[in-house]
Every structure is written in structure tokens, then in C-alpha cells.
Design brief:
Keywords: Ligase. The protein is an alpha/beta fold. It contains 13 helices and 19 strands.
Length: 450
């Protein structure tokens, strides 16, 4: 650790957090101890904190007070994590419909937040400083798994308007002290990619953070120019907000000469999970409970894919209890070689609404097509767009291009999934354009289901 990193991680950042009324330093230390607890002890802590959360919401949150009264429930009845199924699954629509009845009575000092709305359902919500502190602490802990720390040089390739518009003078000075540099992820054409590569060379970051699709485009551009960035001392690239495709992970790690760590979280649900150097996508289990449910909101078997539902144990002021994230994934029941007993997600498959509408009206999740396309050698990116019930377009960037038989195999696969009435158009492109916010979506359906 450099002298400046030590000063920031041990002095400037803790002071910054204390001035903001955050307890993230204390929380991080506690999390770094509890990550080594056995699974039974972690589950006991979750149950204890679940009961404490439910005592608060049952007395202070009008919606849950009514629910507990109508159902004859008490917090003491939740003696295990399985008892969570007594409560309904919640989502953005339900929370918005309740209005002020979702906010705890007497809550003060809360910070207003809003989701990005990329799912089409923006949500305004409120967080306490305690909840924010835990999110910061969990992310800080997971950062340190990779032998990097706050104060090490960090280059952030990002496209969210929430962050990019917040770059006022105070934040700019803070980022300079923390040695964090924000680079917009929009408009990454040839010159734009060259500019990012140049910044990486000059800044020499210890860690990268950003959309995996954007980092992969930078890596491919560098490889095309026969540039290797592995001599710059980059330790890790943290990727988030998109499904981390195997081809993206591969090119980032190869060109940057670093580890690649997947991250999963949301402003509303919290900092859910991050990958350790041994490959485990560990859940922040000390203050989060993650369930994976089927289409009828019943738990799936361990290892099976379903809808990810999160209970955040740190936020009684504006609770997220059995909250549907809108994503699909699976839990990994096996232990991680790193020795941490924190539960793991084995895979993430993107948004639940990333899919296509079959000719007969059935919904087909995008993962069915993802598994087909990821087998293409030299794959860089793809995007499947359904314009009409009977018309699907596939944008494909690959080097070298697929063999001649691929298009027919693709058409056959789409016909099997959607029906022979659906026409498939394959377009080979140099680059697949991202969405306006800089993110990449693999599957886009523009057809209203009926």
C-alpha cells in the first residue's frame, strides 16, 4: 500500500465519512470479521436482524402494521429465514401505490434517492444514514478482497446520468483526493476509445470500475492496435450493471492483465454481491437475505434459476422486504475455496423482462438465446431486437465472423423457440451500439404482449 493510499484509507476517507454522519468504518471492520463466521452463525445473525426489522416495521410503517394486524402476525413468529414466506413479495408498483404508508412514522434525517428507471419503472425512495453506511462498508470490504483500497488510483467508466451530473466542485475535489477518475461511457467510438486508452496509460489505475461492455470495447480496441495494458499495474476490473459475458471477461482480463470481479447491486435493494479472487460471487449476508423464486413466488431448489428477491435488514425507515429486483439468477449451495461462508450467487441471467414474445403469445426468456450465441468463436457483442411479433433482428459483432452454417442454426433455434412464423434477420456489424445511458442490453422486445 502506498503512503497516499494509507493516508486516504486510514485518515481522509474515515474523516469524510464521519463528517457525513456515516459509521461505515466501524461497519466495515465488523463485516471483515463476520465474513469468516460459519454459515450457521451468519444465519443466526440474519434471523436476529430480521426480527428486529419486523418489530420496527410492524409498529412504525403503516402498510406493514395493517398487514401484521390483518394476518395475525407477530415478529416473534419469524424464528427462521424460511418464515419469510409468510410475507408477500413486494415490487416498485406496490411501493409507489402505498405512498407515505411505506415510510416509517417519525423517521428523520433520511436521504432521498431514485432508481435510474432503466427498467421503465423509476422509484423514489428514502434511505437512512445507517443503511447508506452499510452499503459503503460492504463495498469497501469487497474491494479490499483484491488487495486494493480506497485511495488507490481508480478509473471509472460510467454512463449513469445520476453520477455524471453530480460532478460539482466539491465532489470533483473529493475524487481527486481519493484518486478516482470518472470517464463518461457514452459515445465510445474509435477516437473516444483511443482517448480512454490514453487516460488509462497516463493515469495508471490500480483498479477499473464500469460497465463490462464498455471496458470490453476499450480492451478490444487496445488489442486491435497491438497494445497490452498489463504492464500498468492494474490489479482488478470491477464490472457492474450488466450481465458479465464470458467473452467480455476474457478480453478485459487478457488485455488489462488483471482479475475481473463481477458486482451485483442496486440503489434500492443495496450492495448485494461481489466476486472474490477465488470466483465466488458472495452476498452481503450480514444485512441482506437473498431468495430465488419461481413464477409463482415459491422457492426454487438450490442451483436452479429464478427471480431474485432481496430483504434488506438495515432499512426499517423505508423497508425493502422480499423485494423483487427484476433480475434472474441462481444461488450456489457449494462452499467457496476462499473460505468465506458468505452465501453465493452462482450466476446472473439479466432482467426478468429480457425476453421475446413467441408467435403463440408465450414469453421466452433471453437466456435461451444467450446460451446459443455465446458459443460463437470471436464473439464481441450481440443484440436481439424483436420489432414485431413476426420479426426479430439480430445484430452480431464477431471477429472472425461465424461460419456459413451458423445463420441456419440460428434460424432453426429461433423457430424452435418462437415459432416458424417469426422471421429472423441477421445483421453483421462492427460494433453493437449501447443504450443512451451507456449500458448494453442483449435482448430488447418492442412488442406489447396481449
Amino acid at each position: 500500500m502506498s503512503a497516499w493510499t494509507h493516508l486516504v484509507a486510514r485518515g481522509l476517507f474515515p474523516l469524510h465519512e464521519r463528517l457525513k454522519g456515516h459509521t461505515s468504518v466501524t461497519q466495515r471492520r465488523a463485516l471483515e470479521a463476520s465474513q469468516w463466521w460459519p454459515a450457521e452463525q451468519l444465519a443466526g445473525l440474519q434471523t436476529q436482524r430480521l426480527q428486529a426489522l419486523l418489530r420496527e416495521v410492524a409498529s412504525r410503517v403503516p402498510y406493514y402494521r395493517r398487514l401484521f394486524q390483518e394476518e395475525g402476525l407477530t415478529p416473534e413468529q419469524f424464528g427462521s429465514l424460511e418464515d419469510l414466506t409468510r410475507l408477500p413479495v413486494t415490487d416498485k408498483a406496490l411501493i409507489r401505490a402505498q405512498g407515505q404508508d411505506w415510510l416509517a412514522e417519525g423517521a428523520t434525517g433520511l436521504v432521498r434517492q431514485q432508481t435510474s428507471g432503466s427498467s421503465g419503472e423509476p422509484l423514489t425512495f428514502w434511505l437512512s444514514k445507517a443503511r447508506i453506511s452499510l452499503d459503503i462498508a460492504a463495498k469497501w470490504r469487497a474491494t479490499r478482497w483484491w488487495d486494493v483500497d480506497i485511495g488507490d488510483r481508480e478509473l471509472v467508466l460510467w454512463g449513469s446520468a445520476v453520477e455524471n451530473q453530480a460532478q460539482d466542485r466539491v465532489r470533483a475535489w473529493r475524487d481527486r483526493l481519493m484518486r478516482s477518475r470518472l470517464v463518461p461511457a457514452q459515445a465510445l467510438d474509435g477516437p473516444g476509445l483511443d482517448g480512454v486508452i490514453d487516460q488509462i496509460r497516463r493515469f495508471r489505475p490500480r483498479m477499473l470500475f464500469g460497465y463490462p461492455s464498455a471496458l470490453a470495447r476499450v480492451a478490444w480496441r487496445a488489442r486491435e492496435q497491438d497494445q497490452r495494458l498489463g504492464d500498468l499495474g492494474i490489479r482488478v476490473a470491477f464490472t457492474t450493471s450488466e450481465v458479465l459475458r464470458p467473452e467480455w471477461r476474457g478480453v478485459i482480463g487478457e488485455v488489462m492483465g488483471c482479475g475481473v470481479a463481477n458486482e451485483y447491486g442496486a440503489r434500492d435493494a443495496g450492495f448485494i454481491a461481489r466476486e472474490c479472487p477465488a470466483g465466488g460471487l458472495h452476498i452481503s449476508a450480514e444485512y441482506l437475505i437473498v431468495e430465488v423464486l419461481d413464477d409463482t413466488d415459491q422457492p426454487v431448489a438450490p442451483g436452479e434459476t429464478g427471480h431474485i428477491v432481496v430483504t434488506n435488514l438495515a432499512g426499517p425507515e423505508f423497508p425493502f422486504i422480499r423485494y423483487r429486483t427484476g433480475d434472474r439468477g441462481a444461488l450456489d449451495p457449494t462452499p467457496c475455496p476462499c473460505g468465506r461462508a458468505l452465501p453465493r450467487l452462482s450466476r446472473l441471467e439479466g432482467r426478468s423482462n429480457d425476453g421475446l414474445l413467441a408467435w403463440n403469445g408465450a414469453w421466452v426468456h433471453g437466456s435461451r438465446f444467450n446460451y446459443l450465441l455465446r458459443e460463437i468463436q470471436g464473439l464481441r457483442a450481440y443484440k436481439i431486437v424483436q420489432h414485431r411479433r413476426d420479426a426479430v433482428e439480430v445484430l452480431l459483432s464477431a471477429d472472425p465472423p461465424p461460419d456459413e452454417g451458423f445463420e441456419q442454426r440460428l434460424r432453426t433455434a429461433f423457430a424452435d423457440a418462437l415459432g416458424p412464423e417469426v422471421a429472423v434477420t441477421l445483421r453483421r456489424v462492427d460494433t453493437v451500439p449501447p443504450e443512451p445511458n451507456g449500458k448494453h442490453r442483449h435482448v430488447v422486445c418492442r412488442v406489447e404482449s396481449t
